[in-house]
């Protein structure tokens, strides 16, 4: 392990801080998640180094510091793929299958999975630490199962075959290749994180929406607005993970590209066969050309023969977590529908109050019109002209009575008209 680290790391200046041993809480498997942590070296922009957590196929982990170009050469990845893992940039969830690696960007889990190791960006996030501990636990458990069942070469051959079946002929997740185990833990961590976020949002949303239906206030409306913004953002993230898994399931070529262990053994087999036969052409360039042509033909024949059989394990794995993330998306969709129903109910309530105000204003306007009749009568009799009615002592009483009767009659006529036209529920 130390030799591998020396090959990966470029020469350090004398001022660089060496990796120091620290006491960590042991994981469920009894081992420490990291062998050493260099907190000062998490980001060394000046030197171009970045801290990575390396977990090998045996479950051993360590902290290494590798520059970008060394990582590109080691994993045979372009710079744009490593840019997906940069925490300074916000990229949607992505799973990319490359020639020698799988690039995974799922929420907090940003890692590179190869046939032999997992390179995870070092972070103090709790979900990253849980990912490392869980991956170590599963790899350790799988290693114990392999030692228990490694009886004879026939079982070893069956375990290294594509089906990865157990002794009893039933598929077991412990016999999946290393890259699929690491991918499964990443998918599980991402789905668990998103599901917990959805559960927290549900716990907060339903009481708040019920309170809003009973008491409409500016404070409650503002809280619901913030809640809906969080819901939209979370739904977008869950939808992206779901679409990424669905896209992988729909593309057989992308799934076949992610069988790194088999591609590695397939690329190494022609060299071993040529070495065992003792075939040594005099020209090394011709040898390389012949071997590359033979390897490409061999790979094309194998891929054409085992088209659909090669992706069964990965397809079942992706389908299982597709169901999980789809269930989370259904929760968020139900919550969004509940919010929409609450908004519709509130709008109906507001419309009802608005209609009541309009009806009251209509009655008030009608009453004002009736009262205005008294003002018209008073204005007429207040003019300076002489009529015999002014000399009658009881004329004032009769004028008031007649005006009142006419006003009440006009008011009742208006009310009947409103009821007839269904403008008021009277």
TrEMBL record:
Write out the annotated subcellular location. Answer: Membrane
Q: How does it sit in the membrane?
A: Multi-pass membrane protein
- Show the coiled coil region(s): 224-251
Report the main location listed first in the record.
Answer: membrane
Record keyword Membrane present: yes
Q: Mind telling me which residue stretches traverse the membrane in this protein? A: 362-386, 398-418
Q: Which InterPro entries match?
A: CorA_TM1_TM2, MgTranspt_CorA/ZnTranspt_ZntB, MRS2-like
> What Pfam families has UniProt attached to this entry?
CorA (PF01544), MRS2-like (PF22099)
**Keywords for the protein's UniProt record, in alphabetical order:** Coiled coil, Ion transport, Magnesium, Membrane, Transmembrane, Transmembrane helix, Transport
- GO-annotated molecular function: magnesium ion transmembrane transporter activity
Gene3D superfamilies named among the record's database cross-references: 2.40.128.330, Magnesium transport protein CorA, transmembrane region (1.20.58.340)
Domain of life assignment: Eukaryota
GO CC, alphabetical: membrane
- Family to which the UniProt record says this protein belongs: Belongs to the CorA metal ion transporter (MIT) (TC 1.A.35.5) family.
According to its UniProt entry, the function of this protein is described as: Magnesium transporter that may mediate the influx of magnesium.
Q: What is this protein called?
A: Magnesium transporter
Native source species = Linum tenue
